[in-house]
Amino acid sequence: MSAERSTAARDNQEGLHPTQALDDTVHQRVRLGVLTVAREADRVEFSFLKKQLAVTDGNLSRHLKVLEESGMITVEKGYAGRRPRTWISLTREGAQALDAELRALRALVLRLETPRPVPDAPDR
Confidence class of residue 2 from pLDDT cuts 50, 70 and 90? Predict the structure, then answer.
């Protein structure tokens, strides 16, 4: 049995719907994007994230603050030449939260893709 199937089976046995394992802090579209882009690199620059996620400076800053306060990312400010830069890195806690989110999403997809008996239509 695959890890996804065993997780889905365990959740089903416990009577929990896979959405119960989704973390609202991670699951929000911009924050999930930040975590996934940061996972792909050691650190990512603010302007790159802004372009990739198609958000404004203020919107991205707000989401970065939420993730930083949750311990999921670190934010480092510095300079590249004379230009100020902001770099974002994923923490161990952020990587674990992203992994848990992906497991929950896989369980949800598996649940929807698993054939289930169709109940008979009621007689009229």
Answer: very low
Q: What is the per-residue pLDDT for 124?
A: 62
Taking the CA of residue 63 as centre, how many other CA atoms within 13 Å lie in the half-sphere pointing to its CB? 22
53 with 30: CB under 8 angstroms? Answer: yes
Domain ranges of the chain: 22-109
- Please tell me the CATH code under which domain 22-109 is placed: 1.10.10.10
- Number of C-alpha atoms within 13 angstroms, CB side, residue 92? 0
d(CA 13, CA 20) in angstroms, rounded, equals 14
